[in-house]
Amino acid sequence: MASSMAIKTLAASPLTRPPLTKSLSSLVRLVSFSTKSDDDDDAIPTAEISRPLADILKELNKKVPDSLVRLRTEDGFNIKYIPWHIVNRIMNLHAPEWSGEVRNITYSADGKSVSVVYRVTLYGTDAEIYRESTGTASVDDPGYGDPVQKAEAMAFRRACARFGLGLHLYHEDLL
Q1: Burial (CB count within 10 angstroms: exposed 0-12, middle 13-18, buried 19+), residue 100
Q2: What are the GO BP annotations of this UniProt entry (predicted)?
């Protein structure tokens, strides 16, 4: 029988977030894709909390800077990806009222892999929309993190890609 777990996380409001440090502020400047001048080191980018979905989606569909993209080799192929924690920061910056939840965790019949279904919901002033995706990880996969954690991160990144975030990485060779 498949186990199921729902975890709902709501992105923190800027009113309840701790103050940003200078190093975090540097990451936010990288993630914001803005054209701010480098002279403005201490400025923290601000965006309206609630915006129409079209504005949020426009920001999420922008190309992610190469400095935030990582590379891993799988079965002899190089794969570009954006780490889940960077995706999370981009979502917090451009869609601060997003939420995400694990919808389902299923182990394969042979117990060798686990799949996670993850839902990301965007809240705009005009509507809310969600996208779901799956991630699967091998139970025997060596490396950091447990299989559920790996599958959840993969499903989260893919659900965000369905809004356009990092989507350019999936078809980069066609451009």
Answers
A1: buried
A2: double-strand break repair via homologous recombination
Which CATH number, 3.30.390.80, 3.40.710.10, 3.40.190.10, 3.90.226.10, labels domain 8-13+50-174? Answer: 3.30.390.80
Task: Report domain extents, the chain.
Answer: 8-13+50-174
**String of DSSP letters for the chain:** -------EEEPPPTTTSPPPPHHHHHHHHHHTT----TT-TT------SS--HHHHHHHHTSPPPGGG-EEEEETTEEEEE--HHHHHHHHHHH-TT-EEEEEEEEE-TTSSEEEEEEEEEEE-SS-EEEEEEEEEEETT--SSS-HHHHHHHHHHHHHHHTTTTTGGGGSGGG-
User: Which pLDDT does position 19 carry in this prediction?
Assistant: 39
Q: Within the chain, which residues score under 70 in pLDDT? A: 1-48, 172-175
pTM: 0.70
